[in-house]
Write the structure tokens for this entry.
Amino acid sequence: MPVSDSVDLESAADSGTAAETGSEGRPAGLPINELFYSLQGEGTLAGVPSVFVRTSGCNLRCWFCDSYHTSWEPTHAWLDLEEILAEIDAHDADHVVLTGGEPLLHEESVALLEALDDRGYHTTVETNGTIYRDAPIDLASVSPKLASSTPTPERDPDGEGEWAERHERDRIDMDALARLVAEYDVQLKFVVTDAEDMPEILDLLADLRAAADVPVPDDDVLLMPEGATRERLAETRDRVAELAMEHGFRYTPRLHVDLWNDAPET
Ligand SMILES: C[S@@+](CC[C@H](N)C(=O)[O-])C[C@H]1O[C@@H](n2cnc3c(N)ncnc32)[C@H](O)[C@@H]1O
Ligand SMILES: Nc1nc2[nH]cc(C(=O)O)c2c(=O)[nH]1
Ligand code: SF4
Ligand SMILES: [Mg+2]
């Protein structure tokens, strides 16, 4: 569904704060940037037909964010849960991917996941790993953000580095990460550009293994090449594949970028 053609479009929301669902006369619901049917493009379920629900608003600002209109310039329609569920049910899919923006910012994401679980869907949540919520999540697809994601003045797509300090402060929450790996089936999906990212990944894994009550096998660690376009992926993917082999981690493609480049609703 092209949400941009839909009802009640509100732009430039104050992202970075939890959604005010159910307050101020608004029906309980979620700020939805887009809702579409595609193939899961990333991770261990790559290739699986899935409905994607993309919430708007993020507590971080990665300079490379491929979903600019949920983070740097958030736009969305407010849809109540029944509307979202009806759109999902209209597609013939068993898998639903809740993504964003940062979907776990929103308390109402839990109610959506509960309703999806009741209906028998497999749920994947794409999250930056800074927020823990208790919800029926079949696969927590956690993408902790490395220092190379920080929007320094040279890399800020929208200004002069005003977000760098807050992003740097908030990008890793070890307690939230440890709870996510303890409570859910998790894949850790790191966005990698080159070998300079690796020491930080190894340090983060060591810290997480020390903090978590459960094992974090290398098999659950995926390296994903940075690139929102085919052109950019062509520059990063070979190096990232070699790094995955060198370290014994998995490599994940970005199938949707290979197939549809940076088209919306793919
Ligand atoms: C837009 S984010 C939304 C979910 C959540 N905020 C997060 O970052 O995990 C969805 C996925 O896209 C990845 N991503 C965003 N921009 C990317 C880029 N330019 N290259 C590779 N992966 C990117 C994120 O790391 C995450 O795994
Ligand atoms: N096809 C496709 N697969 C995806 N896997 C994770 C995505 C995301 O943006 O979270 C995504 C996306 O945007 N499109
Ligand atoms: S955490 Fe996810 S949605 Fe937020 S800015 Fe980074 S990639 Fe974009
Ligand atoms: Mg995406």
Notes: Strands lie at 9-11, 29-39, 49-55, 75-80, 95-99, 122-127, 139-142, 186-192, 221-225, 250-251. Confidence is low (pLDDT under 50) at residues 4-23.
